[in-house]
Write a structure and sequence with these properties.
There is one protein chain. With 242 residues, the chain is an alpha/beta fold. Helices cover 37% and strands 30% of the residues. The chain is built from 11 helices and 12 strands. The chain has an 8-stranded parallel β-barrel, surrounded by 7 helices. Helix 1 packs parallel to helix 3 and helix 9 packs parallel to helix 11. The chain starts with a strand and ends with a helix. The mean pLDDT is 90.
Length: 242
């Protein structure tokens, strides 16, 4: 199982939000590339980066910071936030991003996302962001009437690399990952699932790793790392046993 340390970008700074609320941002640094290298030094081979401003704007807003991260980080960078057209997808892959995450586009233009998945093999991750079981979009500012499992099943056999499942109500709050809902989703589809939202410590890593063979590909963690509640090297070692 992969541990993805997270770097969320707001106005070029490293931040974490509470429940996706841009007005509830905690700043953890002003040098995203340096933060990426700290994660690499702790053993991370994968990194999850989000252009938060881009998520709300529907276009790239933190290009300079993302480019610096990709240049500095020696492993695989997974990027989401405002990626909603083919030119943007191609541009990020050409820059060296390993996978791009698409959320709003997956709900509003699923055929486009499927086209991208066919064009960029193993490169497209579909974000399935849930608030009370329903899919949220536009930087989580809008909640649809589409159940999470319905959206996930639309991408069966579409060639997407993974589903990124986030329980918004736990994100950035250190409440613990919603392991039950994540495992239930993984069992219901044939697409690997990445867990996100609320990781607070090693217990979350251990519980998810137990279910790795049921389709849990990885877990994203942010605030727990920044606040010293989770040691990244230990988490990677534990996940690696799965």
């Amino acid at each position: 199982m992969i541990v993805f340390p997270a770097i969320d970008l707001k106005a070029g700074e490293v931040v974490r939000l509470a429940e996706g609320d841009m007005d509830r941002a905690t700043v953890y640094g002003d040098n995203p590339a340096a933060q990426a290298m700290l994660f690499a030094d702790a053993g991370a081979q994968h990194l999850h980066v989000v252009d938060l401003d881009g998520s709300f704007a529907g276009r790239t807003e933190n290009r300079e910071a993302v480019e610096a991260i990709v240049e500095a980080f020696p492993g695989y960078v997974q990027l989401g936030g405002g990626i909603r057209d083919a030119a943007t997808v191609e541009g990020w892959f050409n820059l060296g991003v390993a996978r791009v995450v698409m959320g709003s586009a997956a709900l509003k233009d699923p055929e486009f996302v499927k086209d991208m998945a066919r064009e960029w093999e193993n490169g497209i991750v579909v974000a399935v962001d849930a608030r009370d079981g329903m899919v949220a979009t536009e930087g989580w500012a809008e909640v649809s009437d589409v159940p999470v499992h319905d959206l996930a099943r639309r991408f069966e056999d579409a060639g997407v690399a993974s589903l990124l499942f986030t329980d918004i109500g736990r994100d950035g709050l250190l409440k613990g990952c919603n392991v039950d809902a994540t495992v239930e989703l993984a069992r219901s589809v044939d697409i690997p699932v990445i867990a996100s939202g609320g990781v607070k410590g090693l217990d979350d890593i251990r519980m998810l790793a137990i279910h790795a063979e049921e389709g849990i590909e990885g877990v994203i963690t942010g605030r727990a790392l920044y606040e010293g509640k989770l040691d990244l090297a230990t988490a990677i070692a534990m996940a690696g046993k799965a």
